[in-house]
């Protein structure tokens, strides 16, 4: 039995350019960018930015390295610092980023979607408990990319 949203006649096309936005471009959006670059079709332009300046978070490197990915030399940057400002899709991962994206695109034909994504910096406890919170965010973003951008059915529904 097929899920109601999975209509083969309405095959989804992956966007050609995607911007991921969060508060400081330190955790959620660079993680989403790295995952999307690995998962999206070749030739897809993927970038990330924050609403305000942030600092690189070493736990992002830890959880991406676990799955063979990296953010490379990524340093957090804001929307104003982007080289390109046209995207087919802007995916916001935090409320403040969503509001900023809607304001930015008011007069543009750019789709903006909000994927509520937890902030792993609120995790406390041992190093392993904190890393686990970052893994959950990584896995959450990977699932959203597969299902919402690439149109893949969840395994349980297939």
TrEMBL record:
Residues 16-152 form the Phosphotyrosine protein phosphatase I domain. The keyword Protein biosynthesis does not apply. It comes from the Bacteria. It holds the Pfam family LMWPc. The keyword Ribonucleoprotein does not apply. GO terms for biological process: response to arsenic-containing substance. InterPro entries: Ptyr_pPase, Ptyr_pPase_sf. Keywords: Arsenical resistance. This is Arsenate reductase. The lineage of its organism: Bacteria, Pseudomonadati, Pseudomonadota, Alphaproteobacteria, Hyphomicrobiales.
